[in-house]
Design goal:
2 domains; Spore Coat Polysaccharide Biosynthesis Protein SpsA, Chain A; eight-stranded mixed sheet; alpha/beta; single chain; globular; about 325 residues
Length: about 325
């Protein structure tokens, strides 16, 4: 009979079967300490490709695998389904396009099991073949790099490498399903982090435990950054309104001004060559204002989803 796992590794995936295959193969190379028996939970978020077959055929040698199909589209649903299924004391998360280091499990879980912290943000680096000389801080952060996180006061966990104790769910029961991939796009892990800190749980850093992020190269394209800018602004507007209860006067006027400002910036920089990859910071900034205020206008017509800095969604 298998030991009850102390660690539940949760990977949520959607229509990225080949990426998942590589990640599952990489898990064979990590160390699973005898004192930290693990289970691997694959949550298939409404995939229509061969994800189920890959999960079955690429089971790691060093831990049992549990496959779950979550038909509701959105990573928040997948996260919550994975946690409901998990049996471990620690939930350890990564993505379907990540390569973890050999010491990943012990490095991310021991500080939690020993009681030093309740949650941990780990290190994430961009895979070498995806590095670009034009990347600035914003570009790198948006590709998941942890290099700019303040170790003394981390603002949020990163889904590619994060862990927390099961007891966190006693006060913060789950991820907001209106955020994250498949919904507004982002801020799902950030809001969850803010909530667990607001609940009094201790957040630590393990930037010496670094996973390598092998995201799709298309995310570096101009169109990829245009879409990323839109989703980031929309997600942050949602959190600002519903969780922080930010009061923003004259939102419609601010939105119109943001549209005009973006048009002005694009006119001013019209002679700049548009590259196939990347997006200049001035354009990211201009787009942010347009999409933030447009989303805030929409959200402000709704009742708040949380009490200010609340831990449980009201609706």
């Amino acid at each position: 009979m298998n030991k009850r796992p102390k660690v539940s590794i949760i990977i949520c995936t959607s229509n990225r079967a080949e990426d998942l295959r590589q990640t599952l193969c990489a898990l064979n190379d990590i160390s699973v300490p005898e004192k930290l028996p693990c289970e691997l939970i694959i949550v298939d978020n409404a995939s229509t490709d061969s994800t189920a077959e890959v999960a079955e055929s690429c089971r790691p040698r060093n831990m049992p695998l549990v496959y779950i199909h979550e038909p509701r589209r959105g990573k928040g649903y997948a996260y919550n389904t994975g946690m409901r299924t998990a049996r471990g004391q620690v939930f350890l998360f990564t993505d379907d396009d990540v390569r973890p280091p050999a010491n990943w499990i012990e490095g991310m879980c021991e500080p939690i099991l020993s009681g030093r912290v309740d949650a941990l943000v780990g290190g994430v680096k961009i895979a070498p073949h995806l590095e670009r000389p034009w990347m600035e801080k914003t570009h790198r952060w948006w590709m998941g790099s942890s290099e700019y996180i303040n170790a003394e006061a981390p603002e949020g966990m990163i889904g590619a490498n994060m862990a927390f104790s099961r007891k966190v769910l006693e006060k913060v029961p789950g991820f907001d399903t209106e955020l994250g991939p498949g919904a507004l796009g982002f801020e799902d892990d950030t809001l969850f982090t803010w909530q667990l800190v607001a609940a009094g749980y201790r957040l630590g850093c393990a930037f010496d435990v670094v996973v390598e992020h092998h995201f799709e190269e298309s995310r570096l394209s101009r169109s990829g950054f245009l879409e990323r800018s839109k989703k980031a602004a929309q997600s942050q507007a949602y959190v600002a309104y519903h969780w922080e209860h930010c009061v923003t006067p004259l939102v419609r006027l601010r939105y119109i001004k943001a549209v005009l400002r973006l048009a002005y910036l694009r006119m001013k920089n019209r002679r700049q060559k548009k590259h196939e990859e990347g997006l200049p910071l001035w354009e990211i900034d201009g787009l942010y204002g347009v999409y933030y205020y447009r989303q805030y206008l929409f959200e402000s017509k709704r009742a708040f989803n949380y009490e200010k800095h609340g831990l449980v969604k009201l609706s």
